[in-house]
Design a protein that fits this description.
alpha/beta; Glutaredoxin; Serine Threonine Protein Phosphatase 5, Tetratricopeptide repeat; 3 domains; five-stranded mixed β-sheet; 14 helices; about 10% strand
Length: about 290
């Protein structure tokens, strides 16, 4: 048992207090581990060292997955180590397996206040107000002052995509260190980039729907409309179009319907209620 106030062992009995309630005051990293797991034994000293270094900016909550199987099942833990980030009473991010220290630090940067926190908050406010161009400007200026902050680079790629500057967003993603590509935020950006590329030049949804009214099996219209709907957040409608494309045109775009469905599952996440349904329907088309 650790003597550090920043590293605690957690059970089902105190999970609510330590993790859920605690995360409303500070970031909590929940580390699911087991005695027999070698990668867990490698990761724990790294996480413990970071917890001490950050001096209370986050708490490391260790959960023995063998003893606390209920917590492991509740969190969908399928392999260990799994580390889940809790903030404001809910999980906001995670990673699995041993990760380089640089990747973990970059992931922490997203949730811990740093010297660039004011600029990031201003950029997020601009995005929320629909002013992606302003967000891009703010983030570019922040990167000039803090060029090593990887979270700023991830934010910039996101803002560029929302501004419709897809080529620049792709370039920004490609400049990220390779060890960041397993981060959920980067995987989601790559999935969104897939749909932005596939949707092509801006075209109103009504124009694409009109094309399908004239030809319900138009593969280009099915593909572009499905991708545009998913980008817009109309996930079920978009999945239906991609499934129809896969059903009718397996050879179009080197099986673009299948690829689009897989990218959508990555974007939505394994726990999204639509994923199981459409994965099952996709598999039925394959066999």
């Amino acid at each position: 048992m650790s003597l550090s106030p920043f590293i605690v062992d957690v059970t089902e009995a105190d999970f609510q207090q330590v993790v859920i309630e605690g995360s409303r005051e500070h970031l909590v990293l929940v580390d699911f581990w087991a005695d027999w797991c070698q990668p867990c034994k490698m990761l724990l000293p790294l996480l413990s060292g970071l917890a001490e270094e950050y001096g209370g900016k986050f708490v490391l909550a260790k959960v023995n997955s063998d003893r606390e199987q209920g917590l492991a099942m509740e969190h969908g833990v399928r392999s260990i180590p799994t580390v889940i980030f809790y903030r404001d009473g809910r999980p906001v991010d995670q990673f699995m397996g041993m990760q380089p220290e640089s990747a973990i630090r970059a992931q922490l940067e997203k949730y811990l206040p740093g010297p660039e926190a004011v600029e990031r908050e201003a950029a997020q406010a601009a995005l929320a107000a629909g002013d992606a161009a302003r967000a891009v400007t703010l983030l570019e200026e922040a990167l000039q002052d803090h060029p090593d902050r990887q979270a700023l680079k991830i934010d910039l790629a996101d803002a560029l995509m929302q501004a419709g500057r897809v080529d620049e967003a792709e370039t920004a993603i490609k400049t990220l260190p390779m060890d960041l590509y397993e981060q959920e935020a980067v995987r989601l950006l790559e999935a969104r980039l897939h749909f932005a590329r596939a949707a092509g030049q801006p075209e109103t949804l009504s124009a694409l729907e009109k094309r399908l009214a004239n030809d319900p099996d138009d593969p280009d219209a099915l593909h572009r409309l499905g991708c545009a709907l998913i980008l817009k957040g109309e996930h079920q409608a978009g999945l239906e179009k991609l499934l129809q494309l896969m059903r009718k045109h397996r050879k179009y775009g080197d099986d673009a319907g299948h690829k689009g469905l897989l990218a959508a599952f990555e974007l939505l996440g394994a726990r999204h209620p639509l994923v199981n349904e459409y994965r099952r329907r996709m598999m039925a088309l394959m066999y």
